[in-house]
Amino acid sequence: MKKIVAYVDLRYTLRQPTGVDKHIARMLHGLQATPGCDVSVLASRDQLLESGKIPAGSSLASLPCYRLPLSNREARMLWAVSPWPAADRFCPAADWLYSPQELWCPATHLRTAATVHGVTYFEPELPGYNSPWAIFERARADWFYRQICRHADRVLSVSRYVERFLVERFGLPENRSEVVGNGVDACFFAAGCGPSVPCDEDRVLVVGGLNDWDGARYVLDVARALLAARSPLQIDIAGTFDDARYVRQADALPNVRRLGYVDTSVLATMMPHYLALLYLPAIESFGMVALEAMAAGLPVVACTLTAVPETAADAAAYVDASQAGEIVDVLHHLRRDSASRQSWIAKGRSRAEAFTWDACVNRLAATFLA
User: Fold this and answer.
1) Tens-digit pLDDT profile for residues 194-211
2) Which of 43, 164, 247, 311 has the most CB atoms around its CB within 10 Å?
3) Helix (H, G, I), strand (E, B), or coil: what is residue 148?
């Protein structure tokens, strides 16, 4: 039996789940259910109840927990400059110390592993790349990623795109690297395998907030191009991470509707009713939204930026995110040509089948059980 202790920032387990939050919960619970694995959590004192337990609202509340006698802030500051106190002191008899997010937690005797989810601040396309804020965040990420790549026994990436970056920038040895990926929740596959449902051929779905990272300016340019072409197509946007600048612009467009936060299971059932998913993120280290749509039977019109082409492969209709007129033409083609739309649906379902949480957990468990 391998005893695996996961060092987690519990704030990521107490909010509405998005990419990293889902990864933490799915991987830890999946490991706990894997024969030969015994999983516990190591969390900072200020994130635990007085009893030392994980708060009931956390997705990890059912797991046993070790208490780190440091606040979250203290731990991060200390471990940024020193390997002390080593985490071995707080989780005796463990075999692995594992962080399912980009946190460095040093140990003296335990084997260590950490997952890197994204390289956002290193992307030259990042809006404000040279701003003081971005420079500071990049320097901080550079420091912690360097610690992880130098000292972790296993560095786990969510995509080949991220792995290549770590190898090229930080010299991560490939024999200490593993791509574990991300998975699509079962509710999306269920939505895509259910009875055929009528789609509203006049509605296009966008999943992600109105912000620079999620490509808000591209989406709103498409909305304006649709209006200029007197197109009947409407855009629905699901997401809450919004920039006030783009919210004002969206509210002024009659063909844009903001849906706010949509629960995962509800989103899955909604997807097959749309004409297509419009997916134009400026920065993306994996591309989960595209896979979820594919699993649910929704064609994907995607940009070629960052990791999107690697994840979606040949199962998406690719466009230049900056060419709104081109994107309008592709959407209109899908609306007119039912056979073409069904072909993209079939390609998407086939692609999504390669991305399940069970497969991700199996790859991770193999690392720990080897």
Assistant:
1) 777 778 899 999 999 899
2) 311
3) helix
